[in-house]
Each structure stands twice: as structure tokens, then as C-alpha cells.
Amino acid sequence: MSDSVTPLPEALPESAVVARLRAAGCVFAEDEARIILATATTADELAAMVARRAGGLPLEHVVGWAEFCGLRIAVDPGVFVPRRRTELLVREAVALGRAAAGEDGREIVVLDLCCGSGAVGAALAAALGRTRVHAADLDPAAVACAARNLAPSGGRVHRGDLFAAVPTGLRGRIDLLAANVPYVPSSAVGLLPPEARDHEALIALDGGHDGLDVMRRVAASAAGWLAPGGSLLVEAGERQARAAAGVLAGGGLRPRVATDDDLGATVVIGTRPQR
After folding, report:
1. Alpha helices for 26-132 (secondary structure H)
2. Confidence check: pLDDT of 11 > 80
3. How far is CA 102 from the centre of its chain?
4. Which of 71, 183, 184, 203 has its Cβ near the most Cβ atoms within 10 Å?
5. Which residues in the chain belong to E strands, given as ranges?
6. Closest CA to 128 of 113, 110, 142
């Protein structure tokens, strides 16, 4: 993104917004211009939004929301922006949740761990209907944001380090444990796009020396929190999939890997045996 800010006219037609964003290096300038124009309520707000986006702020932080699984998810400054590739994790979790609910449609217990904005928990609640959703994150900004996004479904959000934040009454009762843990190796964080590297919390990105440090901590305890037949779902890089499956297997879970080439997504799923 360009650091220079060119004065903008008071009234900005779409073509001017597109031109400004394109000049700043926005690859999807036309789509972003339409979103900004639809969100801004005054000419001054529009000019400010365009200037912030041209200065490198992520679009979602500029407009205050992101589209995810057909939902409008609030995204506060500094909070991890939900990625479209995470829709694969939601899709796999929904299939598991529906199977667990059975014909009687029993309530499904969901834990959205490392929840960020709470997008995954909100999407699962919307898709599955009868759910009890809990979410947890260490970042206070993420907790506040997730609380707003999960309020319509009655979800509860807790602040703390992984399972230390989770009510002990959920132990052994969780059907779906979605843990969107950071999985970027520490040495590769500097190679991320500036929108992520400069504007999202480091704890939401840095997965340690090989990217799997946080995943190991989750997998080590997950089986004790899952209900029999319950599943842990985590994202990983394509090259990490085999190692990630080994991490989940080491935690006593039966692993499998799901991929979606269109989304560029890899999800590793570990299921607690029924016995």
C-alpha cells in the first residue's frame, strides 16, 4: 500500500474510489469500493474510509465487519479477520454436528477456541440451530468483539489461555471443538501480507518454531474435553497436514485431513473414540 495520501474531493463517485484504491495497490479495488460505498453514511466518512484503506488498514477494520459463511461478522481494530478458507472448517464441523444431533435434533455443544471475532462459533450456531456455544480467547479485544457476534445465539465468551478459560462443567461434553489456532511458523510471520502482519495481534498469527506449538497444547488436552465421538477441528498449512494429523493422533484422537483446493484450505479433524 502507498503511504502517500492524495486529497480527495468532497463527493466521491465509485470510479474515483476504485482509482484511489487501485493506485494504493488494492488487488480487488472494484469489490472493495462497492463495500466501502455501501457502508459509509456521509461524504466525510467515505473519504476517511478510503484514506484508511489506501494507507494499508485491512478493509474489514475500515468498515468494521467481514462477510463469513453468509454472515456479517463485526471485526474490531486489531482483531483477527476471519478468512474465507476457514469456511471449510465450518463446513466439516456442520456435517459432524448434524450427524451428532441425530433425528431428534439434540443440542450440540460447541467450543470456539482461539475464537478471535467469534466468527466460527457464530457460523456454527447459525447453521446448526440448536447449539450451546462457548468461545475463548486470550486477547481482550477479541473477547469483546466475539461477545457481540455471539450474543444473538446466546453464546458465552471467556477470556484466558486455551482451556484455562473454559468452564470446567464442559469437560467431557463438547461435541465440536473448533480451534483456529495460529499455525504460521515464527520465521514466516514477517512474510505475511502487511494487512495481517501490521494490524492483527501477533498471538493470532505466530504458531511457534514449526507453526504447530499451540496446536500441540490444544491436542494434548482436547480428548478430556470432548464428548465420546466429539471432534477437534484445526486449520493447518498444506505442508503441515501430515505433522498436524500426527499431533492430534498423539492426543488420542482419530485424525483425518480435509482439503478444498478452491479455498486453498486444509483442515485436520481429530475424533475422540466412542470408547
Report:
1. 29-39, 43-54, 59-63, 87-101, 119-128
2. no
3. 27
4. 183
5. 65-68, 71-74, 108-113, 131-137, 156-159, 174-179, 226-235, 254-260, 265-271
6. 110
